Amino acid sequence: MAEEDFRPLSEEISSFCLVTETRSGTQVTQPFPCSPKLIRRTGANSPKPSELPVWLDDLKKERKRTESHQESIKKRQANLNTSSEAMKQQVQECFEELHMALQEDEKAVLDMIEQDRRETSSKLNRILQDWNQHLSLLQKHISAIQSAQQSPAESMKQLFPEDFTLTSCRKKLDPAEEEIKMNEERIHKLMKVLRNISKDLKAQLQRKSLLLDSFNVAIDKQTCHKQIKLTSEGRGLCLSSEDRCIPNEPLRFDQLYCALGSVAVTSGQHYWEVDVHCCPSWAVGVAYGSLQRRGRDKGAKLGRNRCSWSLEFQNGHLMAWHNDRHVALPVTAARAAPNRVGVFVKYQKGRLVFYDAETMRTLQEFSAVQTAVFERAHHQFTEPLYPAFRFFSPKDKGHHHMEICDLSF
């Protein structure tokens, strides 16, 4: 290399420096000159006299296009109000139908209770009249005895009939009287039904907002373990005890009974549901596409690494997993393991929520705010998210089947 190619660093810097003089006469050294693209060129875009008509014509066309576009936006703005009012009217009509149905049913139930009360009251009135007659007869006999005490003995026969005895004055209690009452057992059953309806209605009202973000999930058959068979056009998974003769592709899980969805979540908010009631043990969640597919170590297991989140039910225990940390969720008779799991993802917020889709009870929420037991930094999604599924040992008793629910309207 030539000797002149090596110059001192000071010379290199000075070649890029620009010396300017301020109004006070002090020299100021700027490290780098402005880019030629940033230097304003005076007169560079000035039209020639012969070009003025063309420029004027172009500017008029642009003005006309701008005015037309403004009118279009104004028209859309006016239509926005009209559309909004129409939507509100439709919503009000739907809720009015619900209100009317509830009011009609409420009236029918109250009428049923009132009818039961009237019938019961009528029966009790008849019994009360019978006892009133008996009471009048007793009072008559008591008055007769009091009169007889003050009268001669021969007048006794006139006051009492010949067959009169104290035994005949005693009225037997009818056990059937105790059975005359309102049908409280029926009312108690009705109250249980109404409470269940109320609970289901509240759950469905909460679910409706999630259904607006329903996500069409299908299984990517290239990711399925060899013993997982797809059914229902890629929406159902069934674990078999036999291997299928299929090529061992790089996307396929080779040791764990796992599968991923075919479409990734990369933005927005999405919701889907998985029916797991036909599976004795399962895991449902989401995972990055970079999740390990080979082997049985933590890098490939759902929830045991930074690339996946899962809700898992195994050996009667329900747990939420991420980054090899877990939270045990209570499973009792009152709070049983879900038959249907709802999964909600809000990608930009790094939010993931698992629901019991039948009761809309929140099972676990992963987010930077809600999950102190997990590392906050891991709840900002950095890669596309795929729906993820896992079966456990096929030796477990029961039918191993999961189905992605159809949430289309």
From TrEMBL:
From the UniProt entry, list the residue stretches annotated as the region Disordered: 28-85
Write down the Pfam families for this protein, in alphabetical order: SPRY (PF00622)
PROSITE patterns recorded: B302_SPRY
- Classify the source by domain of life: Eukaryota
Q: Where is the composition biased (Basic and acidic residues)?
A: 57-74
Domain B30.2/SPRY stretches: 197-409
Per its UniProt record, what InterPro entries does this chain match?
Answer: B30.2/SPRY, B30.2/SPRY_sf, Butyrophylin_SPRY, ConA-like_dom_sf, SPRY_dom, TRIM/RBCC
Q: What is this protein called?
A: Tripartite motif-containing protein 14-like
